[in-house]
Specification:
Mean pLDDT: 76
Radius of gyration: 22 Å
Largest sheet: none
Number of strands: 0
Distance between the termini: 69 Å
Structural class: mainly alpha
Number of helices: 8
Shape: globular
């Protein structure tokens, strides 16, 4: 038998139900095919934690947009429904949003994008305290500092995410105690 072919006795066995899917069987989230890019996570990172209906609506829109050729009518219908769900949040007080968010998000998300979105959301909800005194929300400032890129560049060169994430987690734990 030539190199590159396996004999029947050494051929790979099919994956079992307990094994991790690999190759063609492996799927990305939301049913995206392997190798495709997600629609985005930046704008919707915290929506499922903030409001289930909004989170579900955004998830549906993101799923539609992750397709190579999304159906335009479905996208419009989904976006219109999401706008209505978002409009329903207009009257919610910042303190209620902060309570909902911090009750749902117990620790800093493991990706930089989602961790930074949490930091920015908290900053938006605590903007009055941020403006009044730098000490008022010191843990939040420490969290932002931990996730910031080095001052000598515009990107992650030299950014040690695992260490920065630990610092952000510590600051978030302090923020939760002080809120």
């Amino acid at each position: 038998m030539s190199a590159g072919r396996s004999s029947p006795s050494t051929a790979a066995t099919p994956a079992t139900a307990t094994s991790t899917p690999t190759g063609a069987a492996q799927k990305n989230e939301l049913g995206r095919s392997r190798g495709s890019f997600p629609y985005d996570s930046w704008y919707g990172a915290l929506l499922p934690d903030l409001n289930k209906q909004v989170g579900d609506g955004y998830g549906k829109l993101r799923s539609l947009m992750a397709r190579p050729l999304p159906d335009a009518d479905e996208v419009i219908k989904s976006a219109d429904a999401l706008i209505k769900d978002l409009d329903a949040l207009k009257g919610v007080k910042e303190s209620e949003l902060l309570s909902t968010l911090t009750a749902a998000v117990k620790e800093v998300p493991p990706s930089w994008e989602d961790a930074m979105q949490l930091t920015l959301a908290l900053a938006a909800l605590k903007r009055k305290q941020l403006a009044e005194s730098p000490e008022a929300v010191k843990p939040l400032r420490e969290m932002a500092k931990a996730l910031s890129f080095p001052s000598d560049g515009e990107g992650p060169k030299g950014f040690d995410f695992p260490e920065s994430l630990k610092a952000a987690e510590k600051a978030y734990a302090e923020f939760l105690k002080s809120k």
